[in-house]
Amino acid sequence: MSNEEWVTLRIAAEAVTGKQVSAMTAARWATNGVRGVKLTFTWIGGRRYTTVALMKKFKDELAKKGI
C-alpha cells in the first residue's frame, strides 16, 4: 500500500497502528479529533478517505502532545 494512496479511514488506521480499529473510531478521529488534533480526510463518493501518510502525521501529532 502506497503512502499516497487514498484508503478508507479504518484501513489507514489499521495500517499505522497494527491493530484492528473500528470504522466509527476512525470516523471520530476525523470529525471530532482527539484533544484538538483531527485526522485529515476527504470525501469520495459519500465515504471518508485518507492516506497512510496523513494517518502517520495524525499519530505523530498525538505523540507530541503525549497522548
Can you characterise this structure?
With 67 residues, the protein is of the alpha+beta class. It has one domain (7-64). 46% of the residues lie in helices and 13% in strands. The chain has a 3-stranded antiparallel β-sheet with strand order 1-3-2. The longest helix has 13 residues, at 52-64. It is globular. It starts with 6 loop residues before the first strand and ends with a helix.
Main traits of this protein?
single chain; 67 residues; alpha+beta; 3-stranded antiparallel beta sheet; 3 helices; 3 strands; 46% helix; globular
Number of helices: 3
Shape call: globular
- In angstroms, what separates the terminal alpha carbons? 27 Å
User: Mean pLDDT, as a whole number?
Assistant: 92
Quick summary:
By secondary structure, the protein is α+β, with helices and mostly antiparallel strands. The protein has helices spanning 9-17, 23-31, 52-64; strands at 7-8, 42-44, 47-50.
Topology, please?
Blueprint: E1 7-8, H1 9-17, H2 23-31, E2 42-44, E3 47-50, H3 52-64
Helix pairs in contact: 1-3
